[in-house]
Amino acid sequence: MTTTTAPESQPFQAEVAELLHLMVHSVYSETDIFLRELISNASDACDKLRYEAIARPDLIADGAPPEIRIVPDKKAKTLAVVDSGIGMDRQELIDNLGTIARSGTKSFVARLSEAKDGANLIGQFGVGFYAAFMVAERIVVTSRHAGSDQVWVWSSSGGSGFEIAPADEDAAKRVARGTEIVLHLKKDAEKYLETYEIERIVRAYSDNIQFPIFLVPEEGEPRQINSASALWQRSKSELSDEDYKEAYRSIAGAFDEPAMTLHYRAEGRQSYAVLLFAPSTKPFDLFDQARKGKVKLYVRRVFIADDADLLPAYLRFIRGVIDSEDLPLNISREMLQNNPQLGQIRKAVTGRVIGELENLGEKEPEAFTKIWDAFGAVIKEGIWEDFERREKLLALSRFTTTSGEKRSLKQYVEDIKPNQTEIYYLVGDSIERLKSNPKLESAKARGIEVLLLTDPVDAFWTSAPIDFGGKPLKSLSQGDIDFSLIPLTEEKVDEKKDEAAVDEGMTIAVVKEALGDRVADVRASQRLTSSASCLVASGEARDRALERLLAQHDKGAVKKPILEINLRHPLVAAIAEAKDAAKDISFLLLEQAQILDGELPEDPAAFATRLNQLVLRGLKL
Q1: What is the span of the domain harbouring residue 60?
Q2: pLDDT confidence of 500, banded at 50, 70, 90?
Q3: What long-range pairs does 101-104 form, CB within 8 A, spacing at least 24?
Q4: Which of 67, 302, 381, 510 is 20 to 30 Å apart from 621, CA to CA?
Q5: Which helix (H) or strand (E) holds 363?
Q6: Which of 397, 366, 376, 347 has the alpha carbon at shortest distance from 260?
Q7: What pLDDT does residue 27 have?
């Protein structure tokens, strides 16, 4: 196999080059991550071999079981991670080590460059191989794809590119199947040649890798340094909290601790083991459209897929393993999409996850709050998408309200005002802006609690006809509002004061004529007590927040709003007397309502001119 073929040089993909620059020139506190990531990749390669060998037993005809070896060499100052997994051919080496196909890479690189400690981001994003450049000045990868007689060598010093060439005879003899990654360590990373350091990292992050990890010291016999057990197949009584933490970090590739652990075995028509975790911190790409769930599917301890759609999209933050005893080992990825057994598992496990979140909310509210703060916006997607579980997801949800607390709808309904028939909410960009929204005034005057919704998904799920506890949800930005049966609680507010001082019909007619087709209608407001005006949507139209959101993405035209005016406000009352200024006041009512809704007036320059003229008239200058 000896060859004189010169190595071929190729450039890295632009994103990889930028990523490597960060790795080479940055120092993160958690450099241990490199070994965890290389072991995880080696485990994946062994998993793939085991799966491929179901259809092609010849791939493991040599009888050598899949395993991982770690070989430190203090004299050469190298650390090797070797697996006897599926291996890579020439093109796979180029594709897997020279490019990043995943969408959102630029976003990841940007976040990594800003982070003080990028270790957790690396684990979240799955670009772990490149983390090795934090500790290595040069990396040499030798690989033989299972069943092939060709062996290739990939090498790079983390600059702008890499070299690839056929392996020489010695390398070909060393790598009978799988991949050998040799790290030429930097001076400040030589601690990773110490056996106790290697064992510490493996115990902390890779103990539950299913394949044996052997440490091959320079002196002495190779020894296995991980338990290599399918922890999810063991009884809960055998496991400690620390066992679960280590399993979570190994399975999820994370550094935080799980906020929730769900471990059980289902028996009956189907038998399967489940070990799932809810993280306590939010990954930066949680809302990336390409992001999928990370629950791995095994069949009788054989890895099948990590994208088998085992949970709905609104639970995509859940990490873990489902191991079936009944599915066929040779199930294809195409069959996974429509397999009825998998569909039943998906339905049952989804129900258990939601049930566990409910129990956590009741029994361990602090732990549940961690999950909700990180993933509540994602869980609420299910209210829109999952009609079957809508009621449960509504009960699970927590909302910031005008009370200043995060509350459940159950708590809201328990404290509802006498004669209050609806659950009121307001959608906007921020809690602070919503708290000052004039549409809350009449509700506040009566002590009516209002949900303040600020996640983008809130504009969508609230557009469905939803009720809770027999009380429909009602937007304060849409349709008519009637609080007449709910008494005032603020003595300073007198909604009947000066109600006859303004001719309602005449005032509305003047404003309508001035504004023309800029609004759909003008009417007296039941929402306002101290502000002059606000904008709302009709009962048949979309909520104003949803219309604005859709318009930002060119998903539909915004319908003309209804302008509501407070007939008790001095500015509105001035319309009848200030004939010359009536048009300017009418426009000012519209434009200040737009500003309070977070919009710009249609013509900011004209707005400024009108405002200046009215101020000068008031000052009589």
Answers
A1: 8-224
A2: very low
A3: 102/126, 102/127, 102/290, 103/288, 103/289, 103/290, 104/285, 104/288, 104/290, 104/291
A4: 510
A5: helix 340-363
A6: 366
A7: 44
Residues 171 and 291 in one domain: no
Q: Which of 83, 64, 307, 78 is nearest to 206 (CA)?
A: 83
Q: How far apart are the first and last CA of the chain?
A: 97
Q: Find the CATH number of the domain harbouring 244.
A: 3.30.230.80
Cα separation values, 113 from 11, 30, 130, 152, 188, Å:
22, 15, 14, 33, 22
Strand 8-11 relative to strand 78-83, pairing: unpaired
Residue 59 belongs to a domain with what CATH number? Answer: 3.30.565.10
Tell me the one-letter amino acid at 560.
K
Q: How far apart are CA 314 and CA 392, in angstroms?
A: 14
Round to whole Å and give the CA distance between 457 and 360. 24
Same domain, 187 and 312: no
Domain boundary among 370, 401, 423: 370
Domain presence at residue 347? yes
Alpha helix locations (H) across 33-103? 33-55, 90-98
Kindly report, residue by residue over 608-617, the tens digit of the pLDDT.
Answer: 988 888 888 7
Question: HSE of 458 in the Cβ direction (CA atoms, 13 Å)?
Answer: 23
Q: Are residues 154 and 208 in the same domain?
A: yes
- Short-list 171, 148, 1, CA closest to 88: 148
Residue 585 · residue 575 · CB < 8 Å: yes
Query: Is 171 in the same domain as 237?
Result: no
Residues 244 and 207 in one domain: no
Interval 98-132: pLDDT, tens: 765 443 445 545 555 555 444 444 444 345 688 88
Under 8 Å between Cβ of 424 and 451: yes
